[in-house]
Write a structure and sequence with these properties.
Helix content is 37%, strand content 29%. It is α/β, with parallel strands linked by helices and 219 residues long. The chain has one domain (3-215): Rossmann fold, CATH 3.40.50.150. It binds S-adenosylmethionine.
Length: 219
């Protein structure tokens, strides 16, 4: 693949748009099912909780989470891409919990302070420049003991993905954990899952999922 195409893939992953954006959204639903399920599992949401997801894409992979939240639960999807936000509103429209899709960047949307039980973000940290400010913002949204869970590909896996060289912030798990700690999260821990090989063009590339959890301290 040429540099121009790799840049286009990277740009679509950071903010899907246009006709190709719809294709990218569907493709992510296949490639990211495992990491998404593992992140949702680690969040361990309960019926009636209020959960924020930053960067849900078209929302399809969030359905198992919304099913757990049930009719008394709240799901806020914060999605920067106009296209993905519209798709997520459509795809999640028949869920029994209250669904609010906030179309904008996580740095701009309003979430009531200390109102949220948990936040997830899957394959999103690469697109955040100022990670410590982002973590501090999430900390302000969650209640005392509120959880945050991030699903990312490891720096090793990202360094093997040709498009990730164009605009991705590639960070080690240690660096992410250190910034979470600096932002005031505690009980930080991570799990790594090997997903084997995936094909990219005519090359096979090793892929993994790193799930990083933390929580806001009591009061
Ligand atoms: C690589 S996709 C991941 C989608 C889905 N979570 C998954 O794993 O399949 C990243 C998503 O995050 C969104 N995004 C990127 N930066 C964002 C930001 N600052 N605020 C809100 N959404 C953002 C993009 O528009 C895109 O839909």
């Amino acid at each position: 693949m040429e540099e121009k195409e790799l840049r286009s893939v990277a740009s679509q992953l950071s903010c899907p748009e246009g006709e190709f954006g719809l294709v990218v959204g569907d493709k992510m639903n296949v490639l990211n099912q495992f990491i998404s399920n593992k992140t949702i599992e680690a969040l361990s949401a309960k019926q009636g909780e209020s959960i924020v997801e930053v960067g849900p894409g078209n929302g399809f992979l969030s359905i198992p989470l919304l099913d757990v939240l049930g009719k008394d639960g709240y799901y806020f999807g914060v999605e920067m891409s106009d296209l993905m936000a519209a798709e997520a509103s459509r795809i999640l429209s028949d869920k029994s919990c209250t669904v609010e899709i906030l179309n904008g960047s996580c740095s701009e949307v309003y979430i009531k302070p200390s109102s949220i039980d948990g936040v997830i973000a899957i394959n999103v940290l690469y697109f955040i420049e100022d990670l410590i400010s982002f973590f501090k913002q999430l900390r302000s949204w969650v209640k005392p003991r509120g959880r945050v869970v991030f699903g990312v590909r490891s720096d090793r896996a990202l360094n093997n993905l040709p498009f990730a060289q164009y605009g991705f912030n590639i960070r080690s798990t240690d660096e992410i954990e250190m910034l979470m700690e600096q932002a005031g999260f505690v009980s930080i821990a991570s799990s790594v899952y090997d997903e084997g090989m995936t094909s990219f063009g005519d090359v096979d590339i090793p892929v993994d999922s790193v799930i990083i959890v933390g929580r806001k301290p009591d009061m």
